[in-house]
Design goal:
mainly alpha, 8 helices, about 75% helix, elongated, disordered N terminus
Length: about 220
């Protein structure tokens, strides 16, 4: 008699969509702390290091947890796609999400480096060439590259949602509009980096609500 082999399939829990909500809260909190503690002008001299270093340190320590939640959120979206996943869109979707995360981590690491350098030699750092270079690099990474990758992620996810009905149609169209705003208007809107986590929050709420009302059969929005 031959033994019967069974294979258990690892299932994503319905509550996993909470990861997107957690990511949104953590990233908005980090951005808010940074935006209210660091001047928007990339040519500022760094006086905030004397008064707001602890607040900035708290903000950048929230970023790794936001990144972990975002990776989980990407996994939730891929699980929701299942066999409907298209290789082309999946590549752009995953690539833009990971590049967004890489830019976020890199910018946070540079800010962390500034805090450590300031703690070691405060008078030499403020107004120095090193500070101005690091400050300009962080500004470019966040306001140019990271925001653009977030927009690409939104466009790709919205396109996938329209063709597979993994999210409401109105949210996909709304995602297109917000992504275009990030692509072409982020330079003129100083608070534009809040758009992406807010959109992820809306998407996560829709997915979470749908997960809890769906039957065991796989389905989506119509």
């Amino acid at each position: 008699m031959h033994p019967t082999l069974t294979q258990a399939r690892l299932r994503t829990p319905n509550a996993a969509a909470v990861a997107g909500i957690l990511f949104s809260f953590l990233l908005i909190a980090a951005f808010w702390l940074l935006r209210t503690s660091v001047p928007a002008d990339p040519q500022e001299t760094g006086v905030w290091l004397r008064t707001n270093a602890n607040t900035v340190a708290l903000a950048i320590n929230l970023v790794p947890f936001a990144g972990i939640a975002f990776l989980w959120f990407i996994g939730v979206l891929r699980d929701r796609l299942g066999q409907l996943e298209d290789r082309f869109f999946a590549t752009v979707f995953l690539g833009s999400g990971l590049l967004f995360l890489a830019m976020l981590f890199l910018a946070s690491a540079v800010v962390g480096g500034l805090l450590i350098a300031f703690a070691a030699k405060p008078e030499e750092l403020i107004g120095s060439t090193t500070f101005h270079f690091a400050r300009a690099a962080v500004y470019a990474m966040i306001n140019v590259y990271m925001v653009k990758m977030a927009a690409v992620f939104m466009i790709t996810t919205s396109t996938i949602a329209l063709y597979t009905s993994i999210a409401p149609r109105w949210l996909a169209i709304f995602g297109y509009a917000l992504a275009l705003l990030l692509l072409f208007g982020s330079y003129y809107i100083s608070w534009s980096f809040f758009i992406f986590p807010l959109w992820v929050f809306l998407l996560s709420i829709c997915i979470l609500a749908d997960n809890f009302r769906r039957t065991p059969a796989r389905g989506g929005y119509s």
